[in-house]
Automatic annotation (TrEMBL):
Its EC number is 4.1.1.36, 6.3.2.5. This is Coenzyme A biosynthesis bifunctional protein CoaBC. Its cofactor is Mg(2+); FMN. Keywords: Decarboxylase, Flavoprotein, FMN, Ligase, Lyase, Magnesium, Metal-binding, Multifunctional enzyme. Transmembrane segments: none annotated. Binds 1 FMN per subunit. In the C-terminal section; belongs to the PPC synthetase family. In the N-terminal section; belongs to the HFCD (homo-oligomeric flavin containing Cys decarboxylase) superfamily. GO terms for molecular function: phosphopantothenate--cysteine ligase activity; phosphopantothenoylcysteine decarboxylase activity. The keyword Metal-binding applies.
């Protein structure tokens, strides 16, 4: 009940969230994926709803229920599909939060038939680079306020700040993967970076961290957009 009395700091704004992994098909039975559960992104979508936003959620392959109040959910599988869905939905969005773990590469040739094992021989797969969704948005002259995530196993701060600059983001949420945090874990810990600022959000549940992240996003959005 208390939540309904919380501040509606995103009222009137359209927030687009991407969540989950992408799957890059190799053949009809195999794919390349990653360990993202989608829980952080879904929690961010739920927190944005609680803050009064109209929320569109673009989800990779996850087994999660749509958070109550999400206006529109679009399910995708590959990075290319997520790229297309996000670009289309971003046209009407004020804020884009890229929480998805987008596959960086895809098999260049997707076999229509199941590939057969060649006994006694090594096998290699040729991969091509996927488009960067955040970088594509940031290259557009009019684009939403952009929030990225950076999941790193090492040198978290420097990699995250580099991504903030290189991708032209307004904010980045960095987290260390491992030690019971991040991928496949129920808790997370984030450090937020923006131009001229940083804020540590200590270890907490993903829903709690999502609420704190949304509060900071709303603050920064107001600071630079109004
Ligand atoms: N991202 C994206 N499109 C991609 C890859 C990543 O929009 N093709 C976004 C992610 O959703 C995330 C941010 O970029 O918000 C950082 O993703 P990450 O994988 O950490 O960064 P990369 O630039 O792919 O670098 P690397 O994987 O080498 O760390
Ligand atoms: Ca990546």
């Amino acid at each position: 009940l208390l939540a309904s009395f919380g501040s509606r700091e995103l009222a009137g704004l359209h927030v687009l969230v991407s969540a989950g992994p992408t799957y890059e098909d190799i053949d009809p039975v195999r794919f390349i994926g990653n360990r993202s559960s989608g829980r952080m992104g879904f929690a961010v979508a739920a927190a944005a709803v609680q803050a009064g936003a109209t929320v569109t959620l673009i989800a990779g392959p996850v087994s999660l229920d749509t958070p109550v109040g999400v206006a529109r959910r679009i399910d995708v599988r590959s990075a290319a599909q997520m790229h297309a869905a996000v670009l289309e939905a971003a046209a009407g969005a004020d804020i884009y939060i890229g929480a998805a773990a987008v596959g960086d590469y895809r098999p260049l040739n997707v076999s229509a038939q199941k590939l057969k094992k060649q006994h006694g021989a090594d096998w290699s797969l040729q991969l091509g680079e996927n488009p960067d969704i955040l970088a594509s948005l940031s290259a557009q002259t009019a684009h939403p306020f952009l929030v990225g995530f950076a999941a790193e196993t090492h040198d978290v701060a420097s990699y995250a700040q580099d991504k903030l600059r290189r991708k032209g983001l307004d904010m980045i949420a960095a987290n260390q993967v491992g030690e019971g945090l991040g991928f496949e874990a129920s808790d997370n810990a984030l450090t937020l970076y923006w131009d001229g600022g940083a804020l540590e959000l200590p270890r907490a549940s993903k829903p709690e961290l999502a609420r704190q992240l949304i509060a900071r996003v709303a603050e920064r959005y107001r600071a630079v957009r109004s």
